[in-house]
Amino acid sequence: MKIRVHSWFVLISLLTAFAHAGEVRIAAAASLSEAITEIGAAYRTSHPETKITPVFAGSNVLARQVESGAPIDIFFSADEKTMDGLVKSERIAKEDVVPVLSNALVVVVRQDSTLSLQSAEDLTKLQRLSIGDPAAVPAGVYAKAWLTGRDLWEKIQPITVGAENVRGALAAVETGNADAAIVYRTDAAVSQKVKISFTVPAAEAPAIVYPVALCREAPNAAEAKPFVEFLRGDQAADIFRKRGFTVILPATAKP
Amino acid sequence: MTPADAQLILFTLSAAAMAVLVSFPIGVAVAWALARKRWAGKALVETLLTLPLVMPPVATGLILLKLFGRRGPLGGWLHQTFGFEIIFTPKAVVLALAVMSFPLLVRCLRTAFEEIPRDLEEAAATLGKTPRQVFFRVSLPLARRGIAAGIILAFARALGEFGATVMVAGLIPGVTETLPLAIYRSFQTGDDSRAWMLAGVSAGVAFAAVAISGWFARGKRLL
């Protein structure tokens, strides 16, 4: 019996080991879903030996997984705070963290909505506003920071519904269960069912930064490193820009 | 424990209690019909009733979300006719808990009814009691232990419900958040100590519920 359990264990470990060879797992913010999928496919054409397997969720959820020892090679967060958390818990080396992208917050309503929203003040008229969970999901944290800066958070907070990631907030508007949502410009672009009411002026909102880093305990660091480089390269930048992201150019690069 | 945590626990307990309270009369009717009556479509109803017990709770949540959403067939009607909002309100939580605990309630009630000796009911009937009187004066009192056990099990099931609730409740701390959702959310936001504390509370409540229902089931004279 003991031997049997043991051999099963060996078999399963072998299977998982094989499954991971040639595979790079990247945990990326939900808002990066389309862009990273596309970049992963583009990478495969030039590096057929490496398969990029993305995992998408709220950055905070992914950070918890990395912290708990999930077999993740690369972490791509939608904010610096979540990344810093992993630096603090020593899952990521500070010098590996590179800011790659920026984004903008927008307020969206359903395509068929007659609401006319033009500013933060207008949001107070709503019945229900969906945002990422303001306690942890980056999009929600940014949204809260914006409204707090406008002195409106206390007033708007009671009508907010938190979502587990920014795409959840978007979905609540798509299904009509919320009147409006605060999401990223790039999320609004992937949905046919919503339209942008207004873009949050950059001066009012906190700076949105997406940093990427190799995980210290990356199971496949050798193959993950070149992909991190690829994410900062021209080909990836084009894809990010096409999706509506702003690419942060490396400080050292000379035009 | 902060006042917010105390309120959370209280909300969870009352939402679960409300869910059982709402589904109890329907549960009794259905369980009775299943235990004592023969009718067309009984097997189908039995199967349908078991679904929430075996289906992924999230799938049940999805169905509820679509059905009761502002634009859903039921939710849309309620919204337009009565201005009722279900999704993302405490009503949605009670609804999800009720649907998820209903099959368990019906199973326990049905067994309780089936175990009543038929001859006692028949004796009461021959002594001139109407079927209604037989039900309320003989059947229900005889089944009381099984009924109590069923209520407590359904209540405990409701307390632990996660999958369906998370679909319809949204993350609104202090409004729609139940214990399981708060444990999950605390963990995701990095507040492990709160997650553990709430997990401890849940374990305590579940232990008490199962112990009490075991008591009833074993026929200790509490009732």
Distance between the termini of chain A: 66 Å
The CATH superfamily of the largest domain in chain A turns out to be Periplasmic binding protein-like II
CATH first level of chain B: which class? Mainly Alpha
C-alpha geometry of chain B: globular
Helix and strand pattern of chain A? HEHEHEHEEEHHEHEHEEHHE
What topology emerges from the helices and strands here?
The complex is a heterodimer of chains A (255) and B (223).
Chain A: H1 2-20, E1 23-29, H2 33-46, E2 51-57, H3 59-67, E3 74-76, H4 80-88, E4 98-102, E5 105-110, E6 129-132, H5 138-149, H6 153-156, E7 160-163, H7 166-174, E8 180-184, H8 185-190, E9 194-199, E10 210-214, H9 221-231, H10 234-242, E11 246-247
Parallel strand pairs in A: 1-2, 1-3, 6-7, 6-8
Antiparallel strand pairs in A: 3-10, 4-10, 4-11, 5-8, 5-9
Chain B: H1 3-36, H2 42-54, H3 57-68, H4 73-82, H5 90-114, H6 118-126, H7 131-142, H8 144-159, H9 163-169, H10 179-188, H11 192-217
Can you tell me about this structure?
The complex is a heterodimer of chains A (255) and B (223). By secondary structure, chain A is of the alpha/beta class. Chain A folds into two domains: 2-101 and 210-247, Periplasmic binding protein-like II (D-Maltodextrin-Binding Protein, domain 2, 3-Layer(aba) Sandwich); 105-199, Periplasmic binding protein-like II (D-Maltodextrin-Binding Protein, domain 2), CATH 3.40.190. In chain A, 40% of the residues lie in helices and 21% in strands. In chain A, the strands form two sheets. In chain A, strands 2-1-3-10-4-11 form a six-stranded mixed beta sheet. In chain A, helix 2 (33-46) runs antiparallel to helix 10 (234-242) and helix 3 packs parallel to helix 4. The longest helix of chain A has 19 residues, at 2-20. The radius of gyration of chain A is 20 Å and the shape is elongated. The termini of chain A are far apart. The model of chain A has no long low-confidence stretch (mean pLDDT 91). Chain B has 223 residues and is mainly α. In chain B, helix 1 packs across helix 8 and helix 8 (144-159) runs antiparallel to helix 11. Chain B has helices spanning 3-36, 42-54, 57-68, 73-82, 90-114, 118-126, 131-142, 144-159, 163-169, 179-188, 192-217. Chain B contains eleven helices and no strands. In chain B, 78% of the residues lie in helices and 0% in strands. Chain B has a single domain (3-217), classed as MetI-like fold (Orthogonal Bundle), CATH 1.10.3720.10. The interface between A and B is medium-sized, with 22 and 16 residues.
